[in-house]
Amino acid sequence: MSSTPLMPDDRRSLTQRLTVMQYVVAVAFAALAIGFWIFQVAQHEKFREMAEENHLRKLPLPAPRGVLLDRDGRVLVDNQSSRNIALIREQTRNLDQTLHILAQATNTDEAQLHETVERRRRDPPYRPIVLIDNATQEQYIAVMARRLELPGIIPQEVPSRKYPGSQVAAHLFGYVGEIREDQLARAEYTGVEPGAVIGQAGIEYAYNKYLMGTDGSRTVVVNSVGREIGKELDPVLPREGRRIQLTIDADVQQATEDGFEATGFNGAAVVLDPRNGEVLAFTSRPAYDPNAFAVGIDRATWAELNTDDLHPLQNRALQGRYSPGSTFKMAVGLAGLEERVITPDFRVFCGGGQTFYGRFFKCWEKGGHGSIDLRHAIEQSCDVFFYTVGNMLGVDRIHKWATLFGLGVKSGIDLPNELQGLVPSEEWKAQNTKEKKWYAGETISVAIGQGQVSVTPVSLAVYTATLANGGTRVTPHLVKAMDDGNELKPVPPPPPQSKVEVTSEKLQAIRDGMWLVVNGDRGTARRAKIAGKDVCGKTGTAQVISNQGRTAARTTKNLRDHGWFTFFAPRDNPEIAGVVFLEHGIHSANAASVAKHVLETYFAKKDGNPLPPPPTREDMRLDLRDPFARGTGPEGNNN
Amino acid sequence: MFERRLYFHIDWLLLAAVLLLAALGLTMIYSTTYVTLPDGAGHPGARFWVQLYAVGLGVLALAIFLALDYRFMAEHSLVLYIGVVLLLLYVLVAGVKAGGSQRWISLGVFNLQPSEFGRLALALILAMYFGENRRGARNYGDLVIAGLFFVVPFLLIAKQPDLGTAVTLVPVCFGIAFLAGLRLRFIAIVAIAAVLLAPVAWKVALKDYQKSRITTFLDPEKDPRNAGYQQIQARITVGSGGLQGKGFMKGTQGQYKFLPVADNDFIFSVLAEEQGFIGVLVALGLYLFVILRSLEAARLAKDRIGAYLVGGIISGFAFQVIYNVTMSAGLAPVKGLTLPLMSYGGSSMIATLAAFGLILNVRMRRFTN
Hints:
The complex is a heterodimer of chains A (about 650) and B (about 375).
Chain A: H1 8-42, H2 44-55, E1 56-61, E2 68-69, E3 75-87, H3 95-106, H4 110-119, E4 129-132, H5 137-145, E5 153-162, H6 170-173, E6 176-178, H7 181-184, E7 197-199, H8 202-206, H9 208-211, E8 216-222, E9 228-232, E10 244-246, H10 250-263, E11 266-272, E12 279-285, H11 290-294, H12 299-307, H13 316-319, H14 329-338, E13 347-350, E14 353-356, E15 359-362, E16 370-373, H15 374-379, H16 383-393, H17 395-404, H18 426-432, H19 440-446, H20 457-469, E17 472-473, E18 479-483, E19 488-490, E20 498-499, H21 504-519, E21 536-542, H22 547-552, E22 562-569, E23 576-583, H23 588-606
Parallel strand pairs in A: 2-10
Antiparallel strand pairs in A: 1-8, 2-3, 3-4, 3-5, 6-7, 8-9, 10-18, 11-12, 11-23, 13-16, 14-15, 17-20, 18-19, 21-22, 22-23
Chain B: H1 12-33, E1 35-36, E2 42-43, H2 46-67, H3 70-75, H4 77-94, E3 96-98, E4 101-106, E5 111-112, H5 115-131, H6 140-158, H7 163-167, H8 169-179, H9 184-204, H10 208-218, H11 227-241, H12 267-300, H13 304-328, H14 346-364
């Protein structure tokens, strides 16, 4: 084989050039090693994070909210698993088409689906957006059947709130809902992610911080097109919200609801333990179904709730302001006693009415009560007696004592949006009206809880409790104990709003009067009597419209009087106090029927007797004669 | 032809390093193409087996190219060269299309990529041309003829289009010319001309996608979704590997397909991810050893043909390795340039092992006449 061997000259040149090549290669490799060292060692941390961001997707695992228990530990508000249908945007190919098919398959509003997606457009594209809350079985099946046409649409199991029957303590519990954009900006919701469910009313709102729990997360491994790969890292389990034991007694609460149900009236009731302000029962009617909110309320239901003439969303117990009528008389009597204007034995002659400052003020009893003392004036709700005492006191001293007992001020209950009632005073009038000057004649109406006086049911309940406990204006509250992670730990009751020293004999005269209301021969609420329990109470009628206005009105149906009954029991060492307010309940005795069922239930439970069954309409012995119904004449006043 | 004593002159160390790199490549291909079934079980991907067969065929090719005297092959290099050119012509006419280019000849069982053999044929014919020529590469006329040998396959491959593979012909050509005594003045002239002609080439010669690759390289964030994506992902892949790597088959970038063509162009990135900087050093060390050892073989070569042949082959190899490794760290524009011995690709594996057959051949026959 022929070849040209290398001459020494050639070889030297070749060797030189090969050496050059060797150096070039060695330098290049050294540079590469340095480059890799920079990326892999010096900047490793940065790239490690970028790689994790690439393939790890953190998906929230929503935490169940804390369970609400009653004072005996029975579950009032629980959680349930509900199914929703969500969208993962990064897995969709044609969003419009997907939403179109989904709307068709599930019979939902396509525009609303678009709106939901639009609202959450700033979320990361892998985070599921809930499109259909609480999907029905049919919707679920429809989605699963068309799954191939619906990339990115997934069903999810999530915890949702489960409230007792739609008509039990709805306003007390409130409801939950997706956090609104304006709420996201608030300091109290820092750390809450868009789409999170928070309390929007009632206890759910007030104690949201505790009830909410901590969402967990599921970290899934995804590939470059966002598809989940089987592997899943250890999830961070959600931590359930804290259990809260309420002061509510489920039996008493149910009795309250049953009582209202039997009367068919709307209204409100608040039942307290007068010793410490624990709320045993709390209702406002008509109510809404909190379950409808729990899984995301649909537009139609929401619109309906908002436009309903009866305002079911209004919490009447906290936000309804009504004139207290005769329930106010104890405040006037007590003011008279404490201001030494009268003694318990002070007597007034009632001839069916009396003239003050040139105007005749009627007593509800046309025939008059004759000579009557404080106790019997309360028993029979004599107007003339309290006109007289009120006139002797003047409005400011009435204002002072009514306020000390909780009227015209907020109760401080641990629920949101409480409104304040009004007990007028000269100062109030000077500051808040054009007229400015208080006329003594106005005091006469105030003395029987009419005129400008207005109260909320909860404040009237506090007032009654303060009468019952001897002057301590307890703060009504709903939380008895809270889960600290291991066990229910008692929550100390909030301090009383105020405390006033009252002479016990004087207060006893008032209580005696209230005892007579229920137990006396001529009491106005004798139907509330329970043998051996010494129930004390006071009826009251709140006029919705003046007698003159009523005459002028075309219909009287929505103008019927409201009925009040405030109560406590037993007379000595009372342990339950409260108020029942019947909206357009016509007669306060009807309210006393509700209260009686509540009290019977309470005492039956306490004594270990079987609870009374829910009352029927007949049991309520409703008095539905409207004294002011067209044609029966305009006479009469409150009782 | 194969005398028994030749056996003792085989560079076993070089052969071992080459086979070790092929094994490393196989391991990484196993890792990136492993198929995991929904029930958790799995099996190696089809590409792993293809590559394994290719290594087998490659070792066979290596043996053949080792057994035949390289001088015999150089003498018949024109036949080989013309054969490859004809195959490249055939590819342009009736080749198999894939991914927008036409590079393969269908052989039924697998597709052959003739361009991978272009380097070998070019190295042989240029080694022959300069080796038999007393003047070496000092004469411009000879350079023109050498240029013609280069330009024909270059254009045919670039036309497929496969600029990446075509460009690897340049270092082969340059390496041989350099060893054959190319004047430094000429190198300077070419370098200056290249700089001056670059804008012209930019305007005239490059296709849009090629331009975008270069602009993207200069600023990958400008287009993070498309052309810049691979580069960014390559850096993440390499950087996230750290010192020790994420472990065999435990990479995330390659396994979950964030890094495209992980078993091919970016196999070195996967190695960096799963085996870390330590693995990178081992692989780089092996490559460096192979290259330096081959240059040593050129130094030891009995004749100019052998020296030029080895120099040309190893220049192309070194260029490809350095470029691919640089690219796999996201430090060079992404080009369809595979990593010889490691990347998936049957033709490349066979051609590369055949080339090392030639290198071993030259060294082994350094004492024969």
